[in-house]
Specification:
This protein is of the alpha+beta class. It has helices spanning about 10-15, 25-40, 45-50, 55-65, 70-80, 90-105, 130-135, 160-165, 190-205, 220-235, 250-255; strands spanning about 110, 115-120, 140-145, 150-155, 205-210, 210-215, 240, 245-250. The chain is elongated.
């Protein structure tokens, strides 16, 4: 077990970089400094801007109008849900880990607004993602889709959740463009964290072929080899990659128990 902390305020703020502000974490710091000063000295935006050498146009919205940067609102919502400053042993971290695995293996996060959608596997509304959403404290709707897997979609603070998952390493936008990489929090993670990620991934993707499990992913060879190495480490059995197919040996499949 390490003392690593995941989903810090700065991590979450960085998902806003390049939008209204180039450095959203710095804007969060400015907002807090300015509002503290205005409250302590009982002054408005003009006096605060002069004292702190910050643009009055920016402070007018924060101090005079009671507004806040989007990054601040996102951080506050994430904190209410218990999604910030997590450690490996936290139940909310376990829930988010399962949701990240679902984004990799069947779900998605929209690039334009960070709205996530979580694919249900063959178990339907008994899919692991439902348990994960409920453990994370997320309200959701189930969407039936003709010819495609049904989905669970958050109804409250979904865009906040999407940014939290992105800060953990979940892919945003297309998973077939660019080089996909597994979340760095899996490196050096406890066995149960790595196993949960793998089990959730395989529940969505793998199919039994006799005594083995296999699945196909349209991903780069580098990603597939990284994924196969993770599965092999978790299961203790050989896992191979052939073209776009990941093949779990009989030993690897048996060590997973009744995942599929």
């Amino acid at each position: 077990m390490t003392d690593r902390v995941f989903v810090t305020e700065e991590d979450l703020a960085q998902t806003f970089d390049g939008g209204a502000y180039e450095d959203a974490a710095e804007i969060v710091r400015q907002y807090r400094k300015a509002t503290r000063y205005a409250s302590k000295h009982d002054v408005k935006s003009g006096a605060t801007a002069s004292a702190l050498d910050l643009p009055r146009s920016r402070l007018r919205t924060w101090i005079d109008d009671g507004g806040a940067p989007d990054a601040v609102n996102c951080i506050e919502a994430a904190r209410r849900h218990g999604w910030l400053d997590l450690e490996y042993g936290d139940s909310k971290f376990d829930a988010l880990n399962a949701l990240v695995a679902n984004i990799f293996s069947g779900g998605s996060i929209a690039r334009e607004n960070y709205t996530p959608a979580f694919a249900l596997n063959r178990r339907g509304d008994e899919s692991h993602v439902i348990d994960a959403l409920e453990l994370a404290g997320v309200d959701y709707d189930l969407l039936e889709r003709t010819g495609r897997a049904d989905e669970a979609r958050p109804t409250t603070d979904g865009r906040v959740l999407g940014r939290v998952l992105a800060s953990l390493g979940a892919p945003v936008g297309s998973k077939t463009e660019g080089e996909l990489e597994l979340p760095t929090y899996l490196e050096g993670a406890p066995d149960d964290v790595r196993r949960l990620f793998v089990v959730c991934y395989l529940e969505n993707r793998a199919h039994a072929h006799g005594s083995i499990l296999k699945f196909r992913e349209e991903r780069s060879s580098t990603y597939l080899k990284e994924l196969a190495a993770l599965i092999e480490d978790v299961t203790g059995g050989p896992v191979t990659v052939s073209e776009k197919n990941v093949n779990l040996s009989k030993a690897a499949a048996e060590n997973l128990g009744s995942v599929i």
